[in-house]
């Protein structure tokens, strides 16, 4: 039992060191480090996404911008095989973990890319766990179609008004999943 505890401790430290190293080595502070979704807020995000996918009248394209190890996409792809899923990840380690985890799902594609350089015009639903990176809101506004729905775990998109805020928990603290409709963001922009 002690050996297992020591092994878990060592693996946790190695993972922590990888997260810190990847933050400095890959993209040099341009994007946030790999932090997996977990806890009640992860389940809230999955539930809200599932509601959208269940009510869809046609197959949708769902993108996880910064998919990490693909845990969200795996759950959604298994539950909704009629929809297509795309995971974008710039960090090599989580990208390869996602490729490995998701290879059994024919309705999932994982792309190692800088999402800020990608064409997002075919996406119907976006899920993300992003901080307010410079240019992120502008990229989404330029790239996504008016009918796209965006679900942001924990973080608000700076300057945007959420269509809905779903209360959840993270480490026992209250947080939210923010749901945005692109049509409302473009209409708001035109009014200004």
Write structural notes for this entry:
The model has no long low-confidence stretch (mean pLDDT about 85). The chain has two domains: about 1-30; about 30-190, Vaccinia Virus protein VP39 (Rossmann fold). By secondary structure, the protein is an alpha/beta fold. It has six helices and seven strands. Helix 2 (about 40-55) runs parallel beside helix 3. About 40% of the residues lie in helices and about 20% in strands. It has a seven-stranded mixed β-sheet. Strand 2 (about 85-90), helix 4 (about 90-100) and strand 3 form a beta-alpha-beta unit. The protein has helices at about 1-25, 40-55, 70-80, 90-100, 135-145, 180-190, and strands at about 60-65, 85-90, 110, 125-130, 150-155, 165-170, 175-180.
- Strand-residue proportion: 15-25%
CATH class of the largest domain: Alpha Beta
Q: Return the string of H and E elements.
A: HHEHEHEEHEEEH
Sheet with most strands: strand arrangement: 3-2-1-4-5-7-6
Distance between the ends: 63 Å
Assembly status: single chain
The number of E-state strands comes to: 7
| Topology-level CATH name of the largest domain | Rossmann fold
Instruction: Tell me which CATH architecture of the largest domain applies here.
Output: 3-Layer(aba) Sandwich
Unreliably modeled segments: none
Helix content: 40-55%
């Amino acid at each position: 039992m002690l050996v297992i505890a020591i092994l878990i401790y060592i693996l946790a430290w190695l993972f922590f060191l990888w997260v810190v190293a990847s933050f400095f080595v890959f993209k040099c502070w341009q994007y946030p480090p790999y932090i997996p979704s977990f806890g009640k807020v992860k389940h809230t995000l999955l539930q809200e996404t599932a509601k959208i996918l269940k009510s869809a009248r046609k197959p949708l394209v769902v993108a996880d911008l910064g998919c990490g190890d693909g845990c969200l996409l795996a759950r959604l792809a298994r539950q909704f095989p009629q929809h297509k899923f795309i995971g974008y990840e710039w960090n090599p380690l989580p990208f390869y973990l996602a490729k490995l985890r998701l290879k059994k799902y024919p309705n999932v594609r994982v792309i190692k890319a800088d999402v800020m350089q990608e064409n997002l015009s075919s996406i119907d639903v976006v899920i993300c766990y992003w901080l307010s990176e410079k240019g992120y809101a502008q990229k989404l506004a330029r790239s996504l179609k008016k009918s796209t729905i965006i679900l942001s775990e924990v973080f608000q998109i700076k300057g945007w008004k959420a269509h809905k805020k779903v209360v959840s928990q993270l480490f026992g603290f209250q947080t939210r999943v923010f749901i945005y409709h692109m049509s409302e963001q473009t209409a708001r922009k035109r009014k200004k």
